[in-house]
Amino acid sequence: MLSEQTIQTIKSTVPVLEVHGVAITKLFYDRLFTAHPELLHVFNHANQKQGRQQTALANAVYAAAKYIDRLEVILPVVKQIAHKHRSLGVKPEQYPIVGEHLLGAIKEVLGDAATDDILAAWAEAYGVIASVFIGIETDMYTNSALQPGGWRDFRPFVVARIDKESDVITSFYLTPQDQGPIASFEPGKYVSIRVQIPGETYTHIRQYSLSHAPGQPFYRISVKREDTNPTVPAGKVSVYLHNQVQEGDVLWLSAPAGDFTLDQTDTRPVTLLSGGVGLTPMVSMLHFLVTTQPNRKVTFIHAAQNGQHHALRHEIERIAMAHPQVTVAWCYTQPTASDASEQAYHKQGYIDLPWLQSLVPTVEGSFYFCGPLPFMKAVNQLLIAWGVPEDDRHYEFFGPSGALS
What we know:
Elements: H1 4-12, H2 14-35, H3 45-50, H4 52-66, H5 75-88, H6 95-110, H7 116-146, E1 155-164, E2 169-176, E3 190-195, E4 204-209, E5 219-224, H8 236-243, E6 250-253, E7 270-275, H9 279-292, E8 298-304, H10 313-322, E9 326-332, H11 337-341, E10 347-348, H12 353-359, E11 366-370, H13 373-386, E12 393-396
Parallel strand pairs: 7-8, 7-11, 8-9, 9-10, 11-12
Antiparallel strand pairs: 1-2, 1-6, 2-5, 3-4, 3-6
Helix pairs in contact: 1-7, 2-4, 2-6, 5-7, 6-7
InterPro entries: Cbr1-like_FAD-bd_dom (IPR008333), FAD-bd_FR_type (IPR017927), FNR_nucleotide-bd (IPR039261), Globin (IPR000971), Globin-like_sf (IPR009050), Globin/Proto (IPR012292), Hmp (IPR023950), OxRdtase_FAD/NAD-bd (IPR001433)
Keywords: Detoxification, Dioxygenase, FAD, Flavoprotein, Heme, Iron, Metal-binding, NAD, NADP, Oxidoreductase, Oxygen transport, Transport
Domain Globin: 1-138
């Protein structure tokens, strides 16, 4: 337990962290990777270059300081980060390394303002927070390894099949190289893929949502090729998977992880909203719903640029044809002439509240949504405007969490 003096000292740094948090975390990562370049095998290099990881860590440090006397408030975020750490293979012995360089960055950025009392308080607080993470992650590693078909770290899987789903999204069907059983999972979870790309010094690890139902003899991930936006660096792993990985190749996978999962105790109508490649966890949820809750009404709404960018459409429509409780609706921002002639979409432009209400007549139900950040913000604001309670709004970010406000 932290002393009252330590708690008050940490709380006194909240305004400073609000102003200097990102500067501290940028310096922290510089110090960390300079002293321990081997950790570059674990961290997402793209998120580092774009500043997303630094911002995410700054937000986490700020929240920890703000709620240092009520850490249970941030426990959901802690568990979300712990899932990611477990899927990356983060180890307890790495926490002291992180603590050393985080405190060093605080001292360097704040200068004389970082008094001995402040640094001592943060050292004590970090020890408590790290022990919470280590405890949660230890349980996660144990549960992952002991579950039927489970394993602890990374396991080799063979690429059994590759399907091109759209101009930019491809599915990879993965089966265990040892031909043993594989762990089941809750729809919405992801796996980490670890690859050694030829010519790259460090391994790269990325998380991809599982896009099929549990209970299959394979895992399926559906990956967007991230090299179409000239303002954003190309995604090394996604391009490698699309350009170089072939059927028969081996990829190393973590066991399924993540806390964005379908509430299986809820029997109310459910609406699944997705944008772009954000449909992957929704398709997994859809497969699961029609087999385990066949009487539950499901509305599947997807936004895409056009039919050429719309992945897994025919698979979803086949499910809807076979299960009358499922309704689907497509929203295209830039439909092609072919899309128009085939009446391949239900709305042109963007999802808005009147159209959503025409498809889903009541807020009495649960809403799951996933996609690019602008899509997420727009959908969240629509649901708030409609009066959907916070507890019924479930979402996941791809990459480090950002604010939806």
